[in-house]
Amino acid sequence: MKRTLAFGGVVATAGLLAAGLAAPAQASGDVVGTPLANTGLAAYEITAFWLTERAANLVAATPYDVETKIVAKHISTGGPAADSKPGVVPAIGDEKKTTSKSKNINLPKTTGKVFFSDGYEWVKVPNTENRWYKKAKNPHWCTATSIQSAYKNLVATAGSCVYDTVGNKSTMDNWIFVPGYYQGKTPWGIYVGKQAFTHYDFDVYEDGDRDYAFVTVYNGVKGLHDGSAVLGGYKEVSKAVYDNFPYAWKEKGYYCWFFNGKYYVWAFEDAGRLGDNVGGQGLAYNQKVGKPVFVFGYPSGSHPDGNYAYSGQTQKWSYGKTFAASASAIKAEELIGVKSSFTGEGSLGSSWLAGYKNTRRLGYLNGVTIGVSDTDGNNRYDTSISPYFDGETYGVYSAAKNLWSGSIAVPSYS
């Protein structure tokens, strides 16, 4: 399923997927909070979904499709109006200011991919008698980044990488974040989304000015050992934990079994908190338009002229000064743009970092990519577009920054 958004000239096409574990969203003022996996067992099940069969579902995922064809309106003077004073939240480990100079760009460890799917189907493992796994339907990925929070468990990305604005099922299904992902490898583990937060205007009205989201994640689960086996082992649990596992799992002998009067389930290896493993970027809002930013992401796909520029396998960067833009077709009048050759596929959710410190690989998140444009009509994308981060963005961030998540390595039903 796809939708087409006209950014006052920018046309963005994005595949939108259904959500399976999300409860009804709850709004508080301008903020909407929505559970993604609101129990430990639900998160555990999502972990197994992505890690089984040598991470087959991760490997099969394709970039979330975003193609922009016509440039947004570029406002040559002025810019978005700040709704309060400029502010920053320091990055994890960078609470004390440091200075550094370097010509080489060290890529941030905080950047990674978010994965989600359009549900699943049970599939028998070839050449086995009774082994089944959940094969993802339409698995896709976006770019995202770890960001500062009280419990070092927060991810920032585009709102359209979390919320389903077409299927009317609130959020994407089986949502996880994998920093540093590369061809099935998960060097710092995978992090299942617990609760997502966005602006009311994006959730209800699909307002492009508010196309951003902050997601709390559980502790990571370590991924693959030499590319073949999931880390962990069977652990004895109570009958209550065993009984709460899905019937289909017990019927198929999937991650839980009964032996000699005892109950066992697979316990994954806890990777710890996201921010402890990769750090977390700071946040900047109400900043003056025209400041330089680095854009970090996983662009993939081709330019309109057919040139296949990026594979999406490795992290890339671009650099430029922001400028004001608008997109009246989706009620987006306070966007910002930056010159960038990123193609649309995969770059959705890329982090815009102001004041990036090369040696510490830290800066201040000041935008997320929601579309790309060909501004000069030469069939090559040359501009990325982001919402302007203002005081209302900080309000959404504040709703998420102090929420605890916890571990899911050993499954529970609470």
Helix and strand topology:
Layout: E1 2-7, E2 10-15, E3 26-28, E4 31-35, H1 40-60, E5 62-63, E6 73-75, E7 87-89, E8 111-117, E9 120-124, E10 132-136, E11 140-147, E12 154-157, E13 173-179, E14 191-199, H2 200-205, E15 213-217, E16 220-221, E17 224-225, E18 229-230, E19 232-237, H3 239-243, H4 247-251, E20 256-259, E21 262-268, E22 270-272, H5 274-278, E23 282-285, E24 292-297, E25 300-302, E26 308-311, E27 316-321, E28 323-327, E29 332-339, E30 351-357, E31 362-368, E32 371-373, E33 383-387, H6 391-400
Parallel strand pairs: 5-11, 23-31
Antiparallel strand pairs: 1-2, 3-4, 4-14, 6-28, 7-23, 8-11, 8-13, 9-10, 11-12, 12-15, 13-14, 14-15, 16-22, 17-18, 19-21, 20-21, 24-27, 24-30, 25-26, 28-29, 29-33, 30-31, 32-33
Notes on the structure:
The chain has helices spanning 40-60, 200-205, 239-243, 247-251, 274-278, 391-400, and strands spanning 2-7, 10-15, 26-28, 31-35, 62-63, 73-75, 87-89, 111-117, 120-124, 132-136, 140-147, 154-157, 173-179, 191-199, 213-217, 220-221, 224-225, 229-230, 232-237, 256-259, 262-268, 270-272, 282-285, 292-297, 300-302, 308-311, 316-321, 323-327, 332-339, 351-357, 362-368, 371-373, 383-387. The longest helix has 21 residues, at 40-60. The chain folds into two domains: 2-96 and 108-228 and 270-400, no CATH class; 232-268, no CATH class. With 414 residues, the chain is mainly β. β11 and β12 form a beta hairpin. This is Peptidase. Keywords: Signal. Residues 1-27 form the signal peptide. InterPro entries: Peptidase_S1_PA (IPR009003), Peptidase_S1_PA_chymotrypsin (IPR043504).
